[in-house]
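Escalation from tier 1.

The customer reports that the assembly of two entities below gives different C-alpha cells on two consecutive runs. Tier 1 could not reproduce it. I'm attaching the input and our single run for tier 2 to review.
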Amino acid sequence: MTFHSRRADFPLLVRQPTLRYLDSAATAQKPAVVLDALREFYETENANPHRGAYALSVAATDRYHEARARIARFMGMADASCLIFTRGTTEAINLIASAWGQANISAGDEIVVTRLEHHANFVPWQQLALATGATFRIVEASADGQVTPEALRAIVSPRTRVVACGHVSNALGTLNPVRELAAIAREAGALVVCDGAQGAPHLRVDFDQLGVDAYAFSGHKIGGPMGIGGLLARRELLEAMPPYHFGGDMIEFVGDDTSTWNVLPHRFEAGTPNVAGAVGLAAAVDYLDALGMDAVLAHEQRLTTLASERLAAIGGVTVLGPPAAERNGVVSFVVDGIHAHDLATILDGTGVCVRAGHHCAQPLMRALGLDATARASFWVYNDDADVDALVEGIQHAQRLFGTVGGDTAIATPVGHDA
Amino acid sequence: MPDASESPPPEPRPAPNSARVQGLYQDLLLAHYRRPRNRGTMEHPDAVGTVANPLCGDAITVALQVDTDGRVRDARFTGQGCSIAQASASMLTEHAIGAMPDDLRRLRQRVDQLLAGDADVVQDTTLGDLHALAGVAGFPARFRCATLPWEALELALRQAPHG
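Tier 1 run:
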C-alpha cells in the first residue's frame, strides 16, 4: 500500500494551507484523531489513575493501561509492563543512564557512544563517565556520516559496559545498522541502548527482535502530544535497576526508615502519570498502524530521494550525509555563501519551515567541519509540492544574497577564518 | 481577580513574508556581510571577548587594543555566524575604533532599542550603518544574532586595563 499525502488529516496544516512544514524531525504535527482523543479523555474520563475508589478513576486507570498495551504492541514489545512512560527520549535515556549507570559503572569501565549521537544520547553518558571515572569512547563516523560495524568492533573491549547508538541520525538522517551494532556490543558483554527518537516515526521498531536492551522514543515525533514518550527495555534489566525518581505510585510500602518498590512499570513512574498523553499517543500509533509503517517509510523515502536529487541539482547546494537510500526522512544541506540561519529565515518568508543550526549534535558537526546546516525533514503529510516550495525558496535566497548558481565569487566565503 | 475584558489577547505575530524578509536583508547589511570590515585575528590584543549562542553554535570573538586612557585604538573580529551576526560585528568594529568604553556601552543600548523597534532610535543619525539592523526588529528569533558581537565587546571591555 502506498499513499500520496495525509495532509487533510492534520488540522494545523488544513488551517494553514500555504504552510510547508519540513521540520518533523523536530516535532510532528498532530492528526485530528490524536486531538480528539485528548479532548475525549479530559471530557469523559479524567481522574487520577491508580486511586480507584470510584468509577471515574477506574476508567482513567483502564485508559492508561490500554494505551500502554497499544503502544507496546506498535513498538513490537510483547510484555507491555516493560514500556516505561517518560516525558520523551531525553528523559528515557537519562533514566537508564542514571539508574542503571550509577549502579553498574565504575572507574575503569568503558562507555561507548557514536559520533552521530544527538546530545540527548551523548551528554548523559559523557556525564556518567565523568561521575564514575569510566572511560568515555566515541565510535567515529565515516566522512559521509555512517557508523560501520567494523568501526564499533575496533572500539569495544571486555571493559565496555554500555554502547549507546541512535537508530536514525537526527542531523543527517543516517540509518544505523542497529542489529549489527547491537550484536557486536552484546557479544562483548555490553548493554545496548538505542535512541529511537528518529527511528520510531519512520520504521517498524520491532523491539523484541531488534537485539537492543533498551530503546528510547518520543511521542511528539510520531504524532502524539508533547510530554509523553517512553523507554522500552528488557524485563531483567528493568527489574535489576534501582528506582530513578521517588514518590507516589512507585512505592509498595513506605516505612519510617525504609521503603519497598512497586512492580513494573510503576516502579519507574513516580507521581501522577501523563494519562492524557498516553491516550493521545495510543491514538497516534493506531493512526500509523492504519496507514501501515511500510507505506509510511516508502512515502518518506520517495520524498527524501526526490528532495536530495532536486537540491543537489541547484548550483551551490551540497546535500550532506550518505546517499538518499541510506537515509530516513532527513535532507541536511548547506548553501554556498548563505548561512543556514539566514536561509531558514528567508524560507520562512515563503512559508517553508526548516531547521537550521547544529541540530543538537555538536560533536558530529565538529567532526564534519560544519558550523550549521539547514535540515528539511519529511513525514506522512508532506508531498511533492513541499519539495517544490523548498527548491524555489532556496533559489529565492540565492537571488536575494546574490549567489545565484552558487557564484561564490560575489559572496566571499564566510564563517571560516583563513 | 483581573477583568479578562481589560486585557485582550495579544495580536498574533504577523507571519513573515518575503517583503519583510527583504527589509531584513537590506543591501547595507549584505554589503557588510560580503565585505566585512576589520575581520581577522589581531596580533597583540589587550583584551578579547568571545560569546557563543548555544542555540545555533555561532560564536563571535572581538579583540581590542586599548590606549592608556581606555580609548579603543583598534578592533577586530573573528568567528562563525550568519549574515546578521557578521554584519553587526563588522559595524561594531567601525564604531569601536577610536571610541571610549562608555560611548560603546551607550551605543549598545541604542542597538538594543533599534531591535525593539524604538521609533526615536530609528531617527538617530549617529548610528550610521547600524541602521541596517532595524530590519531585525521584526524577527525576535534573530535578535541574538545581532547582539552576539556586542556581548563579546562588553566581555572584552571588562578585560581591558581601563575598561
